[in-house]
Amino acid sequence: MGLIMKCQPNPIRLLLYTEWLMLASCGSLAVVEALEERHLPVQHVLILTLLGVMGLRLPSGESLLKSLYTALEIGLVFYGTLLGYLHILPTLYLIVVIRSCFIFDLRGRWAIAALSFILFSIHQVQYIKNIIPQVALEARHLFWMHQLSELLMFVLALIFVIQFVNTLIAERQTRQQLASAHEQLQEYAFQVEELAAVQERNRIAREIHDSLGHALTALNIQLQTAGKLWQVDLTKARSFLTQAQRLGEIAIKEVRQSVNALRADSTPDEPLEMAIASLVEDFRQATGVSVQTEIYLNAILPSQIVKTIYRIVQEALTNICKYADATEVQIQLQTSAQKVFLLIEDNGNGFEVSSPRKGFGLQGMQERVAALQGSFYLESESEEGCRIIVYIPLAEVG
Fold first, then answer.
1. Better-predicted residue by pLDDT, 76 or 358
2. In the chain, what's the furthest Cα-to-Cα distance?
3. H or E element: which one contains 293?
4. Which of 59, 78, 101, 148 is deepest in the core (most CB within 10 A)?
5. Measured between alpha carbons, how far is 161 from 167 in angstroms, rounded to an integer?
6. Could you give the CA distance from residue 130 to residue 119 in angstroms, rounded to a whole number?
7. 49 versus 343: which is more confidently predicted?
8. Can you say whether the dihedral through the CA atoms of 103, 104, 110, 112 is positive or negative?
């Protein structure tokens, strides 16, 4: 199976420019030789040029291709050193080490660094053999000290290069991860915004159903009653029409509040006791059903709880008016230091709790209570009336 060479651009331009500077320093020797000996060292120039061009693209494919690429680099440096300039060309092994940091993992990088040190030492031994006969005996100790310092400097350079390039790579990867995390956060923010929009639409739907539905249901009953009494008792019929007109005004107000729901949250303007009393009075006038209320509020309730309690009572009375055919309704509302307790009970037709139900009413109640970390219980059986029980913890609401 053939091998396909996959390459990537050199990821850090600063290191590429550093490589070119090192190659240019070695190339300056070729220029000096060309001027002194009046001939151009073509092989050296080609080696340096090829090494420079190879730095533009680094292999990113299979391990074998990476190894061949690195072996070619090492071979070029080794061959160029054998041709001449034994004292300067071995430093180009640093370029091989730099590029290996982008090609291999940490173990491979240190392996290339060790191989470079071995080859550098071989070149240094060859250099010493060639130059030592020309060094005076009294200066040889200085020569050996110089060679030892060069060896140590090369070792330190190898360590510095690996650590420095590793740091640059880690920083680059961190920036990429941060950029990816930023994109994910933007995506999550968009999803949250979409979810918030859905929740807001559901909230507005509950508002319309709970408030406007209650007013229109009561209005319809008032008009039906007025129609029945019109030919029998005109005074009573007018009374029901007056009540229907008032309910119509309430319905118009609720429509306006629903339209402005995204800008302002609708809550009862009056105290909760009075707001519930108003709902009960409207219900009594519309249905003639007796309602007993027991309200004991020993604490100032947050606006979220006030609104939730008000809407639950409103929706419960609307459902009783529509479906229950009840003769008695009982409402209990009590508070303690830890929770709010609400009970709404009627003696109407009732229904099977397990049977599927349509509409937003009960679902809206449950969602409102759940939003406040509360508990919602529904108890009902056919011909046994209905009980709605709500517990809302006060500590959970800020």
1. 76
2. 141
3. strand 290-296
4. 101
5. 10
6. 17
7. 343
8. negative
